[in-house]
């Protein structure tokens, strides 16, 4: 197998991700940062990184503007239905093996179902959730008048999804930092 070249992979998929929601390209880069933090030293890290980049590809060509949390929740099932064909098509085009595509699809589905049963799944779910806890994420993706409601939703829904030990350590601190930044903006 050819060694994974993340920079080359990212440059090949950037235009696809930029056709998703506003801020999805920046979000997926933050997800990958967390994947590397939570999955450090894992043999399967390259496929986790791929999943981190493509996990929101179902949103491609669905919306053009920032959303409220309510709008996102209404559109989520449509985006989730688009995920498998979009990810499979892109990874097939990039000459990924059927086995690797199935692994990435399993990880991506776990990210949007928010339920993990395996360690690699917990990493992608946690990376996706932790990456949201920044003021940049809110600025890039959500209407400002809805930030507080969005963060309240995350606090009630997302905290129970965090499974990795590192994720459990980072979650409360990141959430409090984000709340402080919202109050001061």
From TrEMBL:
Q: Which InterPro entries match?
A: HD_domain
Segments forming domain HD: 25-130
What's a Pfam family this protein contains?
Answer: HD
Q: What is this protein called?
A: HD domain-containing protein
Gene3D superfamilies from the xrefs? Hypothetical protein af1432
What organism is listed for this UniProt entry?
Answer: Candidatus Kerfeldbacteria bacterium RIFCSPLOWO2_01_FULL_48_11
């Amino acid at each position: 197998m050819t060694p994974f070249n993340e920079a080359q992979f990212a440059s090949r998929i950037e235009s696809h991700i930029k056709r998703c929601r506003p801020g999805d390209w920046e979000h997926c880069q933050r997800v990958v940062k967390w994947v590397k933090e939570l999955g450090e030293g894992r043999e399967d890290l390259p496929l986790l990184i791929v999943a981190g980049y493509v996990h929101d590809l179902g949103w491609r060509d669905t919306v053009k503007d920032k959303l409220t949390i309510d709008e996102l929740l209404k559109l989520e099932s449509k985006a989730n239905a688009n995920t498998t064909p979009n990810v499979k098509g892109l990874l097939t085009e990039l000459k990924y093996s059927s086995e690797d595509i199935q692994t990435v699809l399993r990880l991506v589905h776990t990210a949007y179902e928010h339920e993990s049963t395996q360690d690699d799944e917990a990493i992608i779910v946690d990376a996706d959730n932790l990456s949201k806890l920044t003021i940049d994420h809110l600025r890039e993706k959500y209407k400002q008048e809805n930030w507080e409601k969005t963060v309240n939703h995350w606090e009630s829904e997302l905290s129970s999804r965090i499974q990795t030990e590192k994720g459990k350590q980072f979650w409360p601190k990141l959430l409090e930092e984000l709340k402080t930044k919202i109050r001061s903006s």
